[in-house]
Write a structure and sequence with these properties.
Number of helices: 8
Structural class: mainly alpha
Helix content: over 70%
Strand content: under 5%
Largest sheet: none
Length: about 200
Amino acid sequence: MDISPDAFKRFLAWLHPEAEQAAHEYEALRRRVIGWLERRGCCAAEELADEAIDRVVRRVAVAENPGEIKPIPYFHAVVSHLYLEYAETYAKKRGEQLPEDWAEGRAEDWPDAVQSLTEEYREDRFHCLDHCLQTLPTANRELILAYYQNNKQAKIDGRKQLADQFGLSLNLLRVQVYRIRGSLQKCVTDCLPLG
């Protein structure tokens, strides 16, 4: 299910009433979700973070009073459920059985079968990502690759340059990248054995 621009705008307004600050909150929240998933040993942290954001965007879009929903606890609940779905579904697709208490431990405590599953998934994901990047129109592929280049201040400066290069505001650039990432994510999901 695609996310409408209006739903995404409502989500950003839920994070913060000022557009620029909402964009910063969005990026910080996404990094926080990715970090939480990576600490759990998840090798699909970025994809699951994006799916969690999509789910929250859809929830906020239909909520009668989204101001009553606290972002951090709500995201944590969504991400926790999504992570359990991911691990159980992927193990099932691979014909593996996860121990009942596996989700309570850290990656280094998991049995070798779970470690192996995450490595295989990582390889599958990179293969699918390469394939899907090649299916994008050239301009979209270059934009998405340039958008996720660098770290810290270099990333911020690079995104400002991209916005200038395409004649967009930073918010419109984020929306454009969000749409490209959505189609890319759908392609990768469809390509993966998990999909």
